[in-house]
Amino acid sequence: MAKIVVENLVKIFGDHPDKALKLLREGRSKDEILDKTRQTVGINDVSFAVQEGEIFVLMGLSGSGKSTLLRCINRLIEPTSGKIVLDGEDITGVDESELREIRRKRLGMVFQRFALFPHRTVLDNVAYGLEVQGVDRDVRVEKARAVLEMVGLKGWEDYLPGSLSGGMQQRVGLARALVSDPDVLLMDEPFSALDPLIRRDMQDELLSLQSQVNKTIVFVTHDLDEALKLGDRIGLMKDGVIVQLGTPEEILTRPADEYVRRFVEDVDMTRVLTAEGVMKPAETVALKDGPRVALRRMKERGTSSLFVVTRDRKLAGIVTADDALAAAERNDEDLSRIVRDDFPRTTPDTSISEIIPVLADCRFPVAVAREDGKLLGVIVRGSLLAGLVRKDEAAWN
Amino acid sequence: MELIPKIPVGDWVGVLIDLAQQHLGWLFAFIYLVCDSLISALQNLLLWPDPVIFIAVMMLVVALAGHRRLALGVGLGLFILLNLGLWRLSMVTLSLILSATAIALLIGIPLGILTAWSKRANRCLMPVLDFMQTMPAFVYLVPAVLLFADVGHVPALVAIVIFAMPPVIRLTGLGIRQVSGELIEAAQAFGSTRMQILIKVQFPLATPTIMAGINQCIMLALSMAVIAAMIGAGGLGGTVLRGLMRLDVPTAFEGGLAIVIIAIILDRLTQSVGRGRKQQKSSA
Predict the structure, then answer these.
(1) Which of A72, A236, A311, B234 shows its CA 20 to 30 Å from the CA of B195?
(2) Beta partners for residue A12, in sequence order
(3) Using an 8 Å Cβ cutoff, are B161 and B101 in contact?
(4) DSSP output for A283-337
C-alpha cells in the first residue's frame, strides 16, 4: 500500500481562492487567473503516491511549488482542495488536535536553514517533539541521546546550536525529526545551506541512515545531482505541476518535455550512468578452447586480448595475443597456464566516474562482473564514450 | 471659522467622566481597594527592615547574582539616599513605581501577546498606545482624581500605569513578532499547541526585547511618579515640588538627586537581568 497518496491537490494563495479554483477547473492558465482574480496558483492539480520505504524527491527551481507541496503534506500550508492520504486515511479533513497528533507521531520534518531553537541545547532541541507530547523528562532525554548517537553527535548534547557547524546543526535537525520515530520524514532542501563537500557527506549519511531506519522520505531539492543520487523516484516540478515523475534513469534518458530536457542537460552523466549502462558484450574465449582458438578470435575481432570464462561464464582471467602466440609456438594446448589476472574489474552498479580513471591507465578493457563472478560485459574507451553520447542523443532528440 | 462651531471634545470627555463616576463607581471602588492595598503592602515591606540591613541585603543579593561592581554601586546609591535623610520618601516613591510596573506588566504583556497574535488587535491598539504616550502626562491626573474621588497614591498609580504601559505592550509584541517564521513553522511541524509555541519558543526568544520594554516602563513610571506628586502621590516628587514652590533650591536639588539615584539603580538592575540571561546562553 502506498504510504502517502496526494490526489488532485490544489493550493491557491490569496483571499478569494474559490473564484480562482473555479477558473482553474475551467482550464484557465495560471497567468490568466492571476490577471483576473489576483490569486496565485501555487499547486495546480498534483497527484502522486509515495511508497513505503521510498525516497521520493520533489525537484524544481525556486517558485516551482515544491516546498509548498511538501508543506501541504503536513498541512503547514493548508491545501485549497484535493486530498492528502496518509496510511489510507484522508488527513485534509482532520481537526486541529488530530492534526497535532499526526504531526507529533507520524510526520517528522527537516528544514532548509535548520530552524533549530537557538535558546535550547542540542539535547533539548532534539527532545522538543517528545516534550510537546508530554513525555517524561527522563524518557525523552534517553531517546534524544540515542538518536544523537545515531547521527554521530554523541558528546554535543549540552552545546547550543549556534556553536555547531552547519553540517552538525543539520544532524541535530535530522535527530529532532527522528526522535519520535515517525514513519515519514519530510525534508525541505535539508542540505542546500551546506557547502558542497559537507553536502555530499550528508547525502551519503542520509542514505546509510535510511538503510538502518527505513523511513518513507519526501525530499525537496533544487539540485539535480542530489535528486539523482538520493531519489528512488523523482517528481520534477514546474509552475506548480509535476511535469515528469519517474526513476532517475527515466528522467535522464526519456525526458518528458523540453523543460525536463533543459533541466537535465548539464547533468554530469558520468555520475549517473553505471557500468551496466555503457558496457558492451564481452568477447570471450572458454578455458577449454586453447591458445589457437583464442588467437583466431582475436584476429577476427581485431583485439589484442580476450577475457577467458569458465563453462558457466564465470570470469577466469584475461589472455593477451602475445602470450597466446608464444603458447601456440610452444604447442602448449592449455590456456589456464597463460591466463593473467592483472586486469581491472568492476560491478554493474559502479558509476562510470569511478571507471574513467581506471580505464585511462590500463591497456586492458574493464570487465563488468557480478559479485558471484559471472561476466556481464566489458567496457573499453570506445564503449564508454559511445554510452555517454548515446545518452546525450537521447536527451537531445 | 465662525461658520463651523467648535467641536466640544473637552465637554464630551467631561460627560464621559461624569457617566463613569455615576455608573461605574463600584468598579473604581474595587480598583481603589486593590491598588491601595498593593502600594501600602509594598511600602510597609520596603520600610520594614532597618535601612542599613536593607542596603546590606540588596548588595548581597546583587553580588550573589554575579554582579559585584553593580552591588557596590547599588550600596553607594542607597547609602546616599539614607544620608540625605530621604530614605522614607524614596521608599514611598519606589513602592509606587514597583506597584505601577507590576500592574503595567500584568496588563501589558498579555496585550502585547495579543498584538502579536492578531493583526486586528494590533491595528486597534496601536493608535491607543500612541495616544497614551503622547498625551501630556499631566492630563491624566485630573480625570484620575475625579474618578476615584480622591487625591493621593491611587489616582497617581493609575496615571502612572497608563503612562508607563505602552512600551511594555509594544516591545512584547515586537519581541514575539521578531521570532523567525521558520522557528514557528518548526514548532508547528512537531505538533506544538499555540500555547506551547508561545511558552517554549516565542517567549524565551523575545525575552531581551521584553526586558527592554520593562526597563523603559520603569523609567517612565519614575518620571511620572514625580509629576504625580501634584495630585498628592507623595514621595520624592513631593520634595521636589515643595522645593520648587518655595524656591528652595537645596531641597529641590536633593530630591532630584535622589530620583536620579533611584533611576540609575533600577535601570542598571533591570539591564543586568537581561544581560545576565544572555551571557548564560552563550556560555552554556
Answers:
(1) A72
(2) A41
(3) no
(4) PEEETTT-HHHHHHHHHHHT-SEEEEE-TTSBEEEEEEHHHHHHHHHTT---GGG
Q: Give the helix/strand (H/E) hosting A55.
A: strand A55-59
| Cβ <8 Å between B191 and A100 | yes
| Grid coordinates of B215 | 526597563
CA–CA dist A187, A231 (Å, integer)? 12
Pairing of strands A375-379, A366-369: antiparallel
Residues 6+ apart with CB under 8 A from B66: B276
Domain range list for chain B: 22-43+87-283
Q: Please measure the distance between the N-terminal and C-terminal CA atoms of chain B and give it in whole angstroms.
A: 69
Q: Determine the Cα–Cα distance for residues B20 and B42; give it in Å rounded to an integer.
A: 29
In A, minimum Cα distance to B189 occurs at: A103
- The CATH code that applies to domain A276-392 is 3.10.580.10
B interface toward A at CB cutoff 8 Å? 180, 182-183, 185-193, 196, 200-201, 204-205, 281-282, 284
Q: Is the minimum CB–CB distance between A18 and chain B shorter than 8 Å? A: no
Four-point Cα dihedral B112, B116, B120, B126, nearest 10: 50
Q: Which residue has the higher pLDDT, A242 or B276?
A: A242
Taking contacts as CB-CB distances below 8 angstroms, the residues of chain B near A158 are 284
Residues of B in contact with A162 (CB under 8 A): 282
Spatial CB neighbours of A188, under 8 Å, sequence gap ≥ 6: A67, A70, A71, A109, A110, A111, A112, A220
Q: What is the pLDDT along chain A (397 residues), one digit of tens a residue?
A: 789 999 999 998 888 888 888 888 888 888 888 888 888 888 888 999 999 999 999 998 888 889 999 999 999 999 999 999 999 899 998 999 999 999 999 999 999 999 999 999 999 999 999 999 999 999 999 999 999 998 888 889 999 999 998 889 999 999 999 998 999 999 999 998 888 888 888 998 899 889 888 899 999 998 888 888 899 999 999 888 999 999 888 888 788 888 888 777 776 667 677 777 778 888 888 888 888 888 888 888 888 888 888 888 888 888 888 888 888 888 888 888 888 888 888 888 887 778 888 877 777 888 888 888 888 888 887 777 776 765 555 444 4
Which segments of A44-183 does DSSP mark as H helices, in order? Answer: 66-73, 96-105, 122-126, 128-133, 137-150, 166-178
CA distance A255 to A261: 5
Which CATH architecture best describes the domain B22-43+87-283? Orthogonal Bundle (1.10)
Identity of the residue in B183, B189, B281 whose CB atom sits nearest the CB atom of A103:
B189
| B247 DSSP assignment | T
- Looking at residue B198, the DSSP 8-state letter turns out to be I
List the domain boundaries for chain A: 54-69+94-270, 276-392
A128 contacts chain B (CB < 8 A)? yes
Q: Is the dihedral of CA B102, B104, B107, B110 positive or negative?
A: negative
Instruction: List the single residue in A99, A111, A162 with the smallest CB-CB distance to B186.
Output: A111
> What stretches of A134-195 show up as alpha helix (H) in DSSP?
137-150, 166-178
The residues facing A188 across adjacent strands are: A220
The conformation of residue A111, written as its DSSP 8-state character, comes to -
Query: Are B66 and B212 a contacting pair, CB within 8 Å?
Result: no
Long-range contacts of A390-395 (CB under 8 A, 24+ apart): A391/A252, A391/A253, A391/A269, A391/A273, A391/A277, A392/A269, A394/A253, A394/A254, A395/A252, A395/A253, A395/A255, A395/A261, A395/A264, A395/A265
Q: Are A367 and A282 in contact (CB under 8 A)?
A: yes
